[in-house]
């Protein structure tokens, strides 16, 4: 079920389209450049990004007063965790907010819309991995009902340093119960 367009004070939540590609990938790269968002260091080409994400559950937060092509404030998208049928109701998500939009409630609005859409679509678990240094993301997820499953120690290396990853999950209180 597609997310109906949502309007709020200074922020619209809408489905991500290919026309958003440049802005989405630029915001992604800004996050990667912090060194606290992912083990990736370079945003992929749109075709690779598009292939890695589910067609459903990809949204952008947009500034309705901005010119087209400069309006995306942040994005959220889901990836499958497995192609095994028993995991059909489990997704992993990524959320990235533009540096100039941080602290404006963009992440909370995107995550709330995403959770509503995934629950409507039968998803019972949303998971994510976050570097422990990314305190704003950990707070955002906690406020949205995610719990810490555990910390995966030295899961991978970034720029030659071992990094931990906090595994978060949100179980739907209504789907799959």
Summarize, please.
By secondary structure, the chain is of the alpha+beta class. It is built from four helices and eight strands.
Helix-strand layout with pairing:
Elements: E1 6-8, E2 11-15, H1 21-33, H2 46-52, E3 58-62, E4 72-80, E5 90-97, H3 106-120, E6 125-130, H4 135-143, E7 147-158, E8 161-171
Any idea what the shape is? globular
Strand content: 25-35%
Residue-averaged pLDDT? 91
Question: How many distinct beta strands?
Answer: 8
Largest sheet entry: 8 strands, mixed
> What is the radius of gyration computed over CA atoms, rounded to a whole number of angstroms?
16 Å
Percent helix range:
10-25%
Tally of separate helices: 4
Q: Would you mind describing this structure in some detail?
A:
The protein contains four helices and eight strands. With 177 residues, it is of the alpha+beta class. A hairpin with a 2-residue loop joins strand 7 and strand 8.
Offer a few descriptive terms.
single chain, globular, 177 residues, alpha+beta, eight-stranded mixed β-sheet
């Amino acid at each position: 079920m597609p997310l109906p367009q949502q309007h709020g004070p200074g922020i619209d939540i809408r489905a991500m389209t290919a026309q958003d590609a440049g802005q989405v990938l630029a915001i992604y790269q800004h996050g990667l450049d912090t060194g606290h968002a992912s083990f990736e260091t370079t945003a992929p080409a749109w075709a690779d990004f598009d292939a890695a994400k589910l067609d459903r559950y990809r949204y952008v937060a947009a500034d309705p007063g901005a010119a087209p092509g400069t309006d995306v404030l942040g994005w959220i998208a889901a990836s499958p965790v497995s192609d095994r049928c028993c995991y059909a109701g489990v997704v992993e998500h990524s959320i990235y907010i533009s540096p100039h939009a941080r602290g404006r409630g963009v992440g909370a609005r995107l995550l709330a819309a995403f959770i509503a859409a995934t629950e409507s679509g039968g998803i019972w678990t949303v998971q994510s991995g976050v570097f422990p240094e990314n305190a704003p993301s950990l707070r955002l997820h906690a406020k949205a009902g995610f719990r810490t499953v555990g910390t995966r120690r030295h899961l991978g290396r970034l720029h030659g340093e071992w990094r931990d990853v906090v595994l978060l999950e949100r179980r739907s209180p209504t789907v799959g119960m």
